[in-house]
Amino acid sequence: MVLKVFFPSCCSSADSGILIGRWISEQNSAVILAVVHFPFIPVQVKQYLGEVQHMTKVSVSVLGSWSNSKQEKEESLSEFLEDLGTIFCHEPWIQISKEGDSKFWSCSTLQKHSKNPQEEEIILVYYDQRKVMLSHLHPPLETAGQRAEDASKLSAIFDTVARSQVLFMTDRYDEGPIKLTHWQSDGVEASIIVELLKQASVPACMLLTFLLSLVSGICRSRVLTFWPLSFLWSKLSTCEQLGHRLQHLQVISSNKKAQNQNQLMRKANIFVSLLIDVALGILLMSWLYRKNRIGHLADTLIPVADHVAEELQDLLQWLMGAPAGLKMNRALDQVLGRFFLYHIHLWISYIHLLSPFIEMILWYVGLSACLGLTVALCILSDIIALLTFHIYCFYVYGARLYCLKIYGLSSLWRLFRGKKWNVLRQRVDSCSYDLDQLFIGTLLFTILLFLLPTTALYYLVFTLLRLLVVIVQGLIHLLVDLIDSLPLYSLILRLCRSYRLAAGVKFRVLEQQDGKPLRLLMQINPLSYGGVVQTYRLPTYSCYPRDSWASLCKKLFLGELIYPWKHKGDKQN
Question: What sections of the protein cross the membrane (predicted)?
C-alpha cells in the first residue's frame, strides 16, 4: 500500500508538536491541516478538536507527531512522541521529522494495534495551504456537507482544507492553551478599510435597492406602454443600455449571498465593469467641457451634414444620367431621382431648422457621460441613426420597390410554368390558366423585367450606403459589448492572483532517494486568459444585427430590410 501524506508547506518551519488533520481511508491518505506545539494538555486538545469537528463537520483528529530540531534528536523526545500514539489512538500513527538543515525528511508510521504490520511506501506531498484554500477547487458549498466524495479524485483534499476554515481563525498571538501553526498563524488576513467598507455597504445597498426598485417600478408602469414611449424604448439603443445597467445595479445591490464561485465572480465583474465604465465616462465628460469643445463640435456638425447632403445630391444626379454607361429607363429614373432629391431638400431644411439648438442639445447630452462611457456611446449611435435617417428612408424605399418586383417576377414565372402558390398549404401546386391570364401575365412580366435594372441600381447604391452606416453603428456597439461583457475583475485576478482561478493541479518531483519518502510539490494550474473570458463573460444585450452571412446575402437579394436595432427577445446569454 502507498500512504500519501499531504503536508502544508507553511508548517515546514514549525516547532515540534502533533499533527492535526483528516484521515481519508478510501484513498489511504492523510491531510495535515495544522501543527499543535508543545507544551499542551491532551484533554484540552481533544476538547478543541471536538468543537472544530462539530462546527466544520470534518472528522479532524490527531494523526501523528512532528519533530523539527536543528540539533540531533534526543531519545526522551523520541520516546515521548511515540507515547503520544497511545494517548490519541490513531492507526496508523505518522511520524515526520526534520533534522537540521537537511533537505530530506524522515517519515514513518507506527501500527501498534495491528497484528500484521506492513511496511508502507510513503509519498510526502507538499501543498500551499493558502492557495488551496482560495483556489475554489473544492466542491460547491451546497454539496460540501455530503459525504459521497469520489475517492478517485483530489476533491476530498480540497474539500477538507476549505471546510476547515474555523481551524485557521486562531493565530499564535491568541491567548489560549493551544498554539497552532497554519497558513494564517501570523495573523488572519484582514484589512481595516475592507471591514469599514463592508459595514458601510449595508445602508448604502439598502438605499440603492430602494431607489432602484422605485426606478424599475416607473419603468414597468403603464405610462411606458403607450405607443410613442414604447416605440422609443424598444428602438433607441440608449434605453436598452440604461435598462441593462439597471439590471446590473440590481444584481450588485442585492442582499442575497452568492451561492457559488460563479455568482460571486459575476457580481465582482459587474461591479468592476460599472466602476471603469463610469470612470471613463467622467473622463470623457471632463474632456468635452474643456476649451469649449462642445461649441466647436456643434459648429462642425452642420457643415458635415450639408456636405453629406451635397454628396448625396451629386450621387443622385449621376444616377439620373447614364451611370457607368448603363442604359436606364429614363422615365422611372427621373421619377425616382426627383423623389429622392426632394427628400434631401426636406432633410437639409430640417437640419438648418435645428441648428440654433444643436449646441444646447449637445451640452445636455454630454452630461449623460457621467452615467458611463457605454451610455455615451449608445447616445452617439442614436445620433448617427438620426442624422442618417434620410439614408435609411432611401434604403427602405429602394428595398420595397425591389422586393415588390422580385416577388412579382417570381409569381409571374410560376404562371408561365402552370404553377401557383397555395397560401393555405404553403406549397406550390399545379394550376391551369386561360389565354387572357397568360397574355396579361406576359405583359406584366415584360414590364417588370425591363424596369428591374433601374430599380436594382437604386437599391444597390442605397443598400451600400445603409450597410456603411450599420457597420459604423456595429463598431460602436461592439465597443459597448466589450465594456459590458469583458470580465475585468477575473482578468485582473488572473494577472495578480492566478491561483484564485484554478483549472487543476500538477505535481512536481522535488527529491527522491532510496530509503527516504518521495517528496512531491502540488502546484495550482491557473486558467488561461481565453478560458477566463469564456468562463466569466457577462451577458450582453446587443443592438447590432447578428445574422449569418448566408442569411444576410439572402435578405439582400430578396430586398428584405436589415434592421439596425435588435428585436424584442434577442438576448445574448
Answer: 200-219, 270-289, 335-354, 361-388, 394-416, 437-461, 467-492
- Global pTM reads 0.73
Q: Where does 260-388 have alpha helices with state H?
A: 261-288, 293-320, 330-354, 358-366, 373-387
Decide if 422 contacts 428 (C-beta within 8 A): yes
CA angle 355, 360, 366 (to 5 degrees): 120
Torsion of Cα atoms, 450 then 451 then 454 then 457, to 10°? -90
More confident residue, 224 or 40: 40
Residue 30: all three cell numbers together: 492523510
Whether 61 has a pLDDT exceeding 70, the answer reads yes
Q: Where in the chain are the domains?
A: 3-181, 192-286
What is the rounded average pLDDT of the residues 217-221?
A: 62
* Rounded distance between C-alpha atoms, residue 33 and residue 24, angstroms: 13
Give the residue from 492, 522, 552 showing the smallest Cα distance to 124: 522
145: amino acid identity, one letter: G
Report the chain's mean pLDDT, rounded to a whole number.
77
Q: By three-state DSSP, how is residue 568 classified?
A: coil
Stated length of the chain? 573
Residue 362 burial by Cβ neighbours in a 10 Å radius (0-12, 13-18, 19+): middle
pLDDT reported for residue 2: 82
Q: How do residues 221-273 score in pLDDT, each as one tens digit?
A: 655 566 666 666 667 888 888 888 888 877 777 767 777 777 888 888 888 88
Of the two residues 120 and 14, the one the predictor is more confident about is 14
Closest by CA to 241, choosing from 387, 385, 386, 377, is 377
Q: Which residues contact 110 (CB under 8 A, 6 or more apart)?
A: 82, 85, 92, 93, 95
Q: What whole-number distance in Å separates Cα of residue 149 and Cα of residue 121?
A: 24
Give the Cα separation of 138 and 136 in Å (integer).
5
| Residue 396 Cα distances to 18, 402, 460, 466, angstroms | 82, 10, 12, 10
CA-to-CA distance for 123 and 23, rounded, in angstroms? 15
Q: Is the peptide bond before 92 cis (omega within 30 degrees of 0)?
A: yes
Residue 76, CA distances (Å) to 83, 377, 439 in order:
10, 77, 120
With beta carbons less than 8 A apart as the criterion, state whether 234 and 563 touch.
no
Residue 283: predicted pLDDT? 92
